[in-house]
Each structure stands twice: as structure tokens, then as C-alpha cells.
Amino acid sequence: MAVAEARNTYRSGADENGHFGLFGGRYVAETLMPLILEVDKAYAAAKDDPAFIRELTNLNLHYAGRPSALYYAERLTAHLGGAKVYFKREELNHTGSHKITNCLGQILIARRMGKTRIIAETGAGQHGVATATVCARFGLKCVIYMGAKDIERQKPNVFRMRLLGAEVRPVEKGSASLKDAMNEALRDWVSNVHDTYYLIGTAAGPHPYPTMVRDFQSVIGTETREQLMAAEGRLPDSLVAAVGGGSNAIGLFHPFLDDASVQIFGVEAAGKGIATGEHAASITGGSPGVLHGNRTYLLQDDGGQIKEAHSISAGLDYPGIGPEHAWLHFQGRVKYVLATDQEALEAFQLCSKLEGILPALESAHALVHVMRFAPTQAPDHLLVMNLSGRGDKDVFTVADALGEKL
Amino acid sequence: MSLNLVEGVAAKKMPAPISRIAERFALLKKYKRAGLVTFISANDPNPDVFAEILEGLPSAGADIIEIGIPFTDPAADGPSIQASSQRALKHKTDVKAVLKAVEKFREDEIETPVVLMGYYNPIYRYGPQEFAEHAAKAGVDGVIVVDLPPEEAEELDVHLRAHNLHLIFLTAPTSSDARLPAIVGRASGFVYYVSIAGITGTATADEHAVAKAVARLRKHTRLPIAVGFGIKTPEQAKAIAAHCDAAVVGSAIVDVIAKGVKADGTPEAGLSNKVLEFVKTLATGIRNAWP
Q1: What's the number of domains chain A is made of?
Q2: Among B57, B151, B155, B160, which is least packed, fewest CB within 10 Å?
Q3: CB within 8 Å: B151 and A17
Q4: Residues of B whose CB is below 8 A from A25
């Protein structure tokens, strides 16, 4: 009975129509609705199918290289002089970030639905590369939409996608970045409903995407839980992850949401500072609205027009956030904090020098909060940060910001 | 010659009918012809020229006027309407500005139904209750919200109903027979059939497919059916209108505006007349659609 099952949990969402309280839902044109309901049905059937679970587990193990390591960052810990800092090494996965995990899950869904053509949007290019990779692996046609501005600042990833056989279509419209790439992908999907599957890269968009992407990425938190139990015999005291759309963050957070002793921090990109208006912090600097199929916090003006986001990290440069994060903020379960471009650049360099790991600029934002928070904690405080991607793709951006010419 | 439907009737300051949309379709039925629904974005290419076009549309032969509320991220629209939204946004066209334009239009015109069409966020941000109240006051008759399917519509519709405004739903080639009753069951005013699985102003609808689709819709609803997306010429409008109650033309009209805008964004002289002349050719095509 429903009453008997009712208990306080942060892990039961979304409801059957995809709502996390006020947030989430399915705000799409009617032409897409039947298709989105079909994705929902296909995912619901797959997730409890032992054959599907076996295939995905197998691919995660042998193709993506999961589980990713949980690494004690000894020198960083000594440097910060407080909490014991662990990195969840998602950058060690095939293609260099957590994105591959979601792509493997969704490509299996697309195959079950009999779709032969895959489209995706990408900002930094990490999701585009991961999508192109799984399409190559399964021999499916792949089209990636990418903002013209992002193509310029992420050239190596554009070439990677082409090597993998994908067609990269530049999007010149609007602000020529991630949100415009998503608009273009939606336009493509509505025009090619019969053979095309839209492989959304983050835990946002119309239901079931936020829930489905979260479920696939939750392997991050599940592994972390087991690995930390093995290493320390107990749960972490805090978790930290960067939030753009929020898939790496929700993946780490979700398995811990009901553990009240675990403090959870999502780090938004503050760009040049919230006061300048040039940032990508939808929760801190935005308000609820409806875009790209879901209700969530958005950067918008008083008339409901969407504002351009800004972040040095192309992967965080989006004027919205996944609806479950919006809800977790609303509930007060997760604390959303800020890191500026400048702070992220400093953290990027510190991590490179102290740990021999070049973090993605996205992950460097998470590191900013670790550098701020860890020193305030006792040495027995266990902190896990999601090192969601590797920074090789960002060396040109970082060099440019530091005034060096490569 | 004026193509106004109710020639000779003094339109000034008559009490508004209960539903202009229902009255309009009843009148079309009486005249035994299909209707023309025209779309333009509010304040495209600028507030003055837009007002001229709007004012001229009824006598050019528009039976129902759709006005677009521009949005920065029109994900269901093709290049023509995207560009049109961008032009409109240059003039800070928010919901308030759109309602002001309708209010002004209503000072002289109380017969032709006005339907606002747009995306949900500007309306949500304005406030669904305030929007319904102010839209009704301005003389709006119905609203089409592209990204608000029936499953999410109640929070807006409850206020629209309270102010006797129609929420007009879209149906598409992809809408299944299982899904149609839920859509048309919620619909009021008329049902909008999106004739192609795609974005506005790109592919052209196939006449036979439309005829079949409208027949399928008629099994589920007695509301009038308007067909849109992909109708570009008077000939196409005539062909499609033969199978439904009204044909909607948007991108093709908007393209006439686009062609008349100079590189610096200012409109050429006489642009509103050019647009209205094109609407007249569409209206003439549609008037000959029914036997």
C-alpha cells in the first residue's frame, strides 16, 4: 500500500510524468510527444530486463573500463591541511570522461527501439566524442550539433568526432553554443522521427531523459560507496561535483541522497562573477522557467527570454540545469556553490602540479570548492570529489587564458 | 475590393460575441468556404509596420489572425520564423508589448479572432493567471502554446477557461489514435493539425496525406480543423483548404517581411502593402477551395 511505503526519501523521483516537485516534466511539441513516450516505454522495459543489464554491465567493464578508480589525493590533502580528499577518477574512462557511461546505456535503448540514426548536442565536445564513439562501436549513423563558438574553442574534439565517423554540424544561430545546439538537435529530431534517436548528454530535457541519464550515471555513486567502504570502512562525509546540466553530479550524489550524514555540494560556474551577469550559475543567478522540455532554473530576463551563459568551461556553458538539481536545491538537500573562471584556472594548475592529473575545466570548478572547504574540516573528514573528465581537451583554452601561445 | 467577411457591418463598439472563433467558423460554414489563418510575429519587422499589417489583415482576407509571441529559443520553428522572432526581439517584444498591440487592434476591429502563438516560458514568466486575465482584457480569443502538451497544460488552461479563452492544441502525423482523444478532449476553439512531422516552413504537406489525416481527426472531434506547417503558395493553400476548415500560412508571409527588410534592419517603404497583397492572393486561393 502506498501509505505503508511512504517514507522520507530524496530518491523516489521523478513521478510517472517526470516531475520532481515543481520541476521536470515534458514540455515538447506534440510531434515529439509520442516519440518521447516511446523512449519512456523502451527505457522502462529495459531497465529491469536482465539481458539489458548484463549487456550494459559488460560494456561498462570491458569497453569503458569501469569501475573507475577511487584515488586518495595524498599531496593535495597535505597541501590543503584538512579533510582527506579522494578523487573519483571518471577521467580514466574510455573517451576521458563520465559521458561514455550514459552513451552506452542510451545506445542500447536506441537499438532496442530499432533506430538507425543517432543525433546529439555537445558543448565541450566530450559528449559528442562519447556519442560518436558508441555509434562507431555499434555501426550507427551519427550527427552531432555543436555551437560554432564551441567548435572554435574545442577543435581537437571536433577532429576526434570526425575520425570516429560522425558528421559535426556547426550551429551559428542564437549564441552559437550549447543551448543553440540543443535547439537544432530538437529540430532535427522532429523532422526525422521515424529513424532517429536523440541521445541527450546530460540529466536534463523532457522526461524520461533526466531520470534515465541519472540512472545510468548513478554507477559513479554506487562504485564510490563500495570503494570507500573498502578503503575506509565508512561513508564519505562530503561529496563535491561540478554542475552544468548536472549528469556527473547527480550520478555521484544520487546513491547518497538519503544518507543524512553526507554533506553534498554542487559547484556552478560563476564565470566572470555573478555580479557581472557573465556566468552560467542557473540556480544562484537564475529563476524557474521552461526550456528544452523541462521546467528548471534558467538564466532569463524578466520577459522570459533566455540569456546567454558564460563560462571558461564549454561543458558548463549552459543557461539551465537538470530538473532534479533544481528540486534538490529547492528541498535544501544539496548546497549549490560557486567557482569563477579565474578560480577554476588556478585549481586546474594546482591539481596538475600536485597530483600529476590534468583535470577538465569542468572538474576544476569542483576542485575550487574542495580547496575552499577541505581546510575547514578535521583530518578524519572524508571528502569525495568527482574528477569527471580529463583536461587534455582544455590545454588550448588554459594556455590562452594564461597568455601563452601554443 | 475588400475581402472582409462582414462587409458593410459597422464593426465599431459592438458587444463582443461570446466566442469570436466559434462565430467565425459558423460564418465560414454559412458562406460555404474554408478560412485563412495568417501568422506573423508581433512587432516584426518593427512595431509601426506590424501595426499596419495587423490592421490590414481582415480586409486582405485573413479570417483568423495568429500573432507570434517571440522567443529566443523557438525549437519547433524553421529558419523563417526563427529570423522573424529575432527581428521582433530587437524591439523588446515581451508579452506585455504583444497584448498592447492586440488592445490597439481591437479599438477598431472586434470581429476577427486573434490567437496568440508561442512557447511557454514567456507566458509562465508573465504568470499564467495574469496572462489569462490581461489577454482576455486585450481582446485575445485563443492561445497556442507549442511546447505545452495536454499533459502539462492544466496550470495555464485553468486560468484561460476562467476568462473564456480557448487553448488550441496541436495534433501531428505522429499523434496516435490512442492519444488523439486525450488531446481533442481538452481542445477548444479549433484543432490545429501540423501537416508534416517537422519544423515550420520547411517541407511541404502532401494533399492526400492531409485529407486522410483530417478524416482520422474528424472521428475524434466535432471542432473545426485548421491545417498548417508547410503551406507556402495560394495553390497549396487552396489544395489543403479543400480538405479542412481552415489553412494556416506563417513562414511564407514572414518571408515577404524578411525580403523587405534592409541590411540595417529597417523596412523598405510600402512593406505592409506588399505583405497584405500576398495575403490577398492566399485568401483568393482559399475562397475557391471548396466546390
Answers
A1: 2
A2: B155
A3: yes
A4: 151-152
Residue with cell 500573432: B67
Are residues A286 and A305 located together in one domain of the fold? yes
Cell of A69: 578508480
Q: CB A302 to CB B94 under 8 A?
A: yes
Comparing CA positions, the residue from A296, A279, A108 lying closest to residue A202 is A296
Same domain, A256 and A165: no
Neighbours of A402 (CB within 10 A): 10
- Is A308 annotated as catalytic? no
**Per-residue pLDDT tens digits for A339-396:** 999 999 999 999 999 999 999 999 999 999 999 999 999 999 999 999 999 999 899 9
Q: Please report whether residue A12 resides in a domain.
A: no
CATH number assigned to the domain comprising residue B227: 3.20.20.70
> Both A128 and A158 in a single domain?
yes
Residue B5 scores a pLDDT above 80 = no
Residue B13 lies in a domain: no
Inter-chain residue contact B125 with A31, CB threshold 8 Å: no
- According to the model, what pLDDT value does residue A152 have? 84
Whether residues B174 and A35 touch (CB distance < 8 A) is answered with: yes
A232 and A108, same structural domain? no
Best CA proximity match to B96, nearest among B120, B126, B116, B73:
B126
Q: Which of B78, B125, B171 comes nearest A303 by C-beta? A: B125
Mapped onto helix, strand or coil, the DSSP state of residue A340 is strand
Residue A139 forms contact with B (CB below 8 Å): no
The answer to whether the Cβ–Cβ distance between A34 and B174 falls below 8 Å is yes
Which one of A218, A238, A363, A388 is the catalytic residue?
Answer: A388
- Whether A376 and A252 map to the same domain: the answer is yes
Give the integer Cα–Cα distance in Å for B101 and B43.
Answer: 8
Task: State the ipTM, two decimals.
Answer: 0.94
> What 3-state DSSP class applies to A256?
helix
Q: Are residues A74 and A50 in the same domain?
A: no
Whats the size of chain B, residue-wise?
291
Close Cβ partners of A87 (under 8 Å, ≥ 6 residues apart): A70, A71, A73, A355, A357, A384, A385, A386, A387
A207–chain B Cβ distance below 8 A for any pair: no
If you write DSSP's letter for every residue of chain B in order, what string do you get?
Answer: ----TTTT---TTPPPPS-HHHHHHHHHHHTT--EEEEEEETTSS-HHHHHHHHHHHHHHT-SEEEEE---S--TT--HHHHHHHHHHHTTT--HHHHHHHHHHHHTT--SS-EEEEE-HHHHHHH-HHHHHHHHHHHT--EEEETT--GGG-HHHHHHHHHTT-EEPPEE-TT--TTTHHHHHHH--S-EEEE-SSS-TTSSPPPHHHHHHHHHHHHTT--S-EEEESS--SHHHHHHHHTTSSEEEE-HHHHHHHHHTB-TTSPBPTTHHHHHHHHHHHHHHHHHTT--
CB half-sphere exposure, B68, CA atoms < 13 A: 31
Full domain range(s) for residue B81? 25-287
Residue type, B30: K
Indicate if the pLDDT at residue B13 is higher than 70. no
Q: Which domain does A169 fall in, by range? A: 20-61+98-212
Q: Is the CA virtual torsion A153, A157, A163, A169 positive or negative?
A: negative
pLDDT tier, B83 (very low <50, low <70, confident <90, very high otherwise): very high
**Among the options A88, A99, A149, A393, which is catalytic?**
A99
